[in-house]
Amino acid sequence: MNNKKNRDHHKKPCPPVYDVNMPLNMLIRSVDHIYGMRIRNELEKIGVTKAIGPVIMEISKKEGISQNELAEKMHFRASSISVTIKNMIEIGLITKLTSKEDARQAQLFLTQKGIDLNKKIAQTFKNLEEEFTSTLDIEEQKVLRELLDKIYNNLLKKENI
User: What is the DSSP string of 35-68?
Assistant: First the structure.
């Protein structure tokens, strides 16, 4: 399958047919889908894939994080994140160094190129957050966060994550 053609279907969202009786899980999924497309499109403008953006942001929070810890924090299998890590090393965004405490562990660090890109990514996510919540006042944002946190934590318990 042509990869460009496959990616293009994400650029123009087909808004879900909304009705008051739409199950909440479908509404959440629809919002996530459209928001994911916005993220992808905005990150592409600065030359970043949707996979790399959150990884850079996590590494910036804890320089020297191990690949396993990174995978755990992001709820990925270590094997899944290893491809992204390899690509990021190849394009000069991160370096991977052997831990001084445990030679079996590798630590991940942002390069200067990664640090510079992280600033752009953080600003992109900040702008999208503002866009996403622009129709909500502060109190509504607080309530939304509380409700989503409650749903999120409940799902984590059910999955034993």
Answer: HHHHHHHHHHHTT--TTHHHHHHHHHHSTTEEHH
Q: Is residue 158 part of a domain?
A: no
3-state secondary structure of 12: coil
pLDDT tens for residues 108-131? Answer: 999 999 999 999 999 999 999 999
Q: Range of 61's domain?
A: 3-127
∠ at Cα 42 (39, 78), nearest 5°? 50
Considering its fold, how many domains does the chain have in total?
1
Residue 79 lies in a domain: yes
Cα separation of 154 and 81, whole Å? 25
pLDDT in tens, 145-158: 999 999 999 988 88
Question: For the domain that residue 39 is a member of, what is the CATH number?
Answer: 1.10.10.10
Q: Is residue 133 part of a domain?
A: no
pTM exceeds 0.90 for this model: no
Q: Are 30 and 38 in contact (CB under 8 A)?
A: no
